[in-house]
Amino acid sequence: MSANMKQYTLNPRNTPKPIDPESRSFVFSFPTSQFRKIEGIGFILSFDGLCLHRIFLIPSQRAADRQDQVVIKNRNGEAIHMTNLRPRDNDANIVLRVVRTSSRSFMTYLNDQYIATKTTIRREWGNGVNKAGVEIAKNCASQVAVILTVFNKKDGRWAEDFARAMRNLQASPLASESVGDVGAGLNDGRGGKSKEAPGSPEHCYAEWIEKTEVVVAQLVKLFADQRKAQEQREKTEHLGLDRSLLDGQRVQKLRARDMTGRRRKDNVCSIAQGGGGTDSRRNSKPDVNPPDSDIIKLSATVAWPRAIKHVRGARLTERLREKYDILMNDWIVARGDNISSNAYDYLVYSHGVAWPNAILAKTTKADYIKIRERHEIIIEVLV
Question: Full-prediction pTM beyond 0.85?
Fold first, then answer.
């Protein structure tokens, strides 16, 4: 399990669990079948000792209009939002996802459906304690245990996918072979695992929770591994991006140095022959371009603009075109050339340096990678 993702088992007989104040996403899940046996269940998130977010779920069999209800309450227990939903009996689990968008603002989702965004007004100082818990009606005889998975900011982007996977997560019968001490998170309120008689409903439910905990732990590990793999891919791509930009700039410096040397040689030869030397501002000759000049030209004039428009739209394409024009103009002025737009050096700089730098100046590296991938596809089609 990732160090930034924590898993807990909550039930009304347990004290609330301490949570990291930097936590950003909270996924509560429990069986739909258990939801149908209770009168209601509440979820509480407290930060700095203050109850900042409370959500109550009321099953359809207890609601007047026979619909599941989601009620969000303030710290004083007053309802500030209510949503009616069709019963979600097709889903194996009820999954509540809460995203903490700021210190006092929370977005709530139930089984992928957006419920509301609410902000709590804080009028007093807290005591620094951060915790999460659940509660059900005191007269409810049925057990209910909730698995809470907490995501910090770094792993928050995985919370939505994780919640979606939890909706129809079934504890594998094979999980019992490797339960071990994983089920220790579920206790009977006295500090130990449930010691109910084998075969009793309580014992069966405790076993189900143990198996579910194993499967959830495996799922959390899977998402953590996927996150690490994606970070490694992004790191590699970014290193490749930086290297390609450096290589492009290095090539331009070498070409400029080589061209300066050729000009000096031409001037010496011309003077030695009695001439006045070559004009330092002569036009470049497109007729001596290398064989790949056509592809480079397609990349600079067609592929990059099309790729940008495909990924980010026409408006940003125009902004990037302005930045690109500035970079190309600065390059021409620095060279002291009246260079043709068909000259090979012009096309190489346009393709390998100006467009990439223009994109990175106005977008993120992630956007650049998407644009570059689209650029490669367009080149393959054109060639």
Answer: no
